[in-house]
Design goal:
Helix 18 crosses helix 20. 35% of the residues lie in helices and 20% in strands. By secondary structure, the protein is an alpha+beta fold.
Amino acid sequence: MTRKEAQKRAAELSTELRDCQRAYFVESRPLVSDAEYDRLFDELAAIEARYPDLALPDSPTRRVGSDLTQELPEAAHEIPVLSLDKSYTAEELSSWIAKTARNAGRELSFVCEEKIDGASMVLYYEEGLLARAVTRGNGLVGNDVTANVKTIGAVPLRLPRPVTVAARGEVFLARSLFDSINAKMEEPYANPRNLASGSLRRVKSSEVASIPLSIFVYEGYFKDAAATHHETLEELEDLGFRMNTRIGFFSDGPSRTKVKDRHPGWRTGSLGDLVDFIESERRERKNLDYEIDGIVVKVDELSVRESLGYTGHHPRWAIAFKFESPEGATTVRAIETQVGRTGRVTPVARVEPVRISGATISNVTLHNQEYIDMLELAIGDKVAVSRRGDVIPAVERVLEKNEAGAATWQLPATCPVCGTRLLKQGAHHFCPNEACPDQVRGRLSFFVGRGQMDIEGIGPETIEVLVENGLVRDVEDLYSFDPEKLLEIPGFGGKKVTQIREGIEKSRSQPFHVVFPSLGIPDIGQKVTEILIEAGYRDIDSLLEVAGKGDPAPLLEIHGIGERTAETLIRELARPRMRRRIEKLRKAGLQLSEGEPPAGSADLPRIFAGQTWCVTGSFEQFNPREKAMEEVQRRGGRAGASVTSKTTHLLVGANPGSKLEKAQKVGATIVTEREFLALLAKS
């Protein structure tokens, strides 16, 4: 094929593929089969690979993105990108409508649109070509995410006419796709909106292309503006933008009949019908395949919009009617950082106290810098805070930007505790200094805690004293320091010191499947430890041997061990400091092999040999319930953290959880506390 022939064929393919993309992503009516589309796409890609100069900026092949990393530079907005005023009751909304009409001095029409719970985006087109895609940012400046937005099939790369327009819309992810996609994420997202926003900030556009994002466009700013908003929507639709057709138009004037004839799918009525429309949307929202959190009510007449103007925060010609949700509005007063036991640095927002679901919230985790960037969050912003699962406080969205013009908050370059320069790994920042005081405190608290080594007498206050007085510098020192020295410190008497000494001594008999996850290796908990033991890695030395070779392949052959877990295990067990810690714990007498029986069990009959037990519920004689599993292990049995196909017995107490149903499905023997005590008595 000559270059001239290739140019002609590329133009033909581009036109055909654009038609297919619009029909599929915008109009939901595929023109060809997937196989035929792929054939056309591959043919165009092959031509562009041979003749790179034929690959135009709006080529359909741009949808796949690039594997090259990219910056997300800031870009100034050319249109006002403000928040909306809010109303929460029909009375507030009716009052706003009446006030707006009075200020306008005339009868008004109103357009009602679903408030999509996604990521706000402005698409700037120059002479019909997509030039820039910019996030909302602070309303004046946002991030340029053009390469990422080009991967969204519903976003036109070229318009059918060479018009210059700024189109504002909301990028979202369908509910029906969220769960399956989110399950593959290294850091799962709480909801479709966060996944959509987070995806748009990826540094590789090829990764964005793997997320089937979509968009609804709801505003257009043309050089030659139409007279009304509903006519603007019509023009945007004619230009190929994907529009949400669930729209209401309400007016007491003659324009209502015209709009009803032009848009039979819209809900039309008098101003008195507007509140009924909102109530019907409230009822139907649970059936939608996308999330909405309210209805936006806008003045239809653009000349009136111009006369009404804007405040510093929102237009006076639009308002958002917000549906009720278990959220509260508050203001971010400060953002601080915390350093965890693994060195991970987590930003935490200090907010004005707000009551949500019966609890007062004043501190909210912000996860990492990427999460903050996704929210475009700054100190002083008014935010919506929820309690996810009625437990964990989270910032869901920015409601209003701060008046001081504060920019998106950024993590410091160095550790706030020890001053070491932070390193970025994946989505998170870490302090690489393992001797960082907060890391040491975190490791100690985790190691001695219930569910781990369960060392009685050592809590957070005691750990603080041990570290501050230089008695303990890390986990291994718990077994070498002299508890008697605590008697020299106010607040520690003989009884307390004896409790600490006995707790440390008792912990030496904890089985390997308790000791290993207590080391605090990321992603290595009781479940992973159980899987490793079942696969034959029954002692620390077998795991150290694999780590020493640096090859995760043997671990990846184990069902239930993923690539991330295997690589983490190899990396952490290869660290010299971790190896030194393990050797010191070995010398201290800790059980580093599952084959080693707990202390004091040599003379007990092995009545549970060959059995695998699990426990659920609460008990009178065993508090915590892990003590019951210790009795199983002392008599030759194995204890599992969860019910699997290998579970033979389930010990059931009061208020059992889902383990009971799972145990019944796998045919495990159900044992009550009374029956269990009888078995122990016989032995």
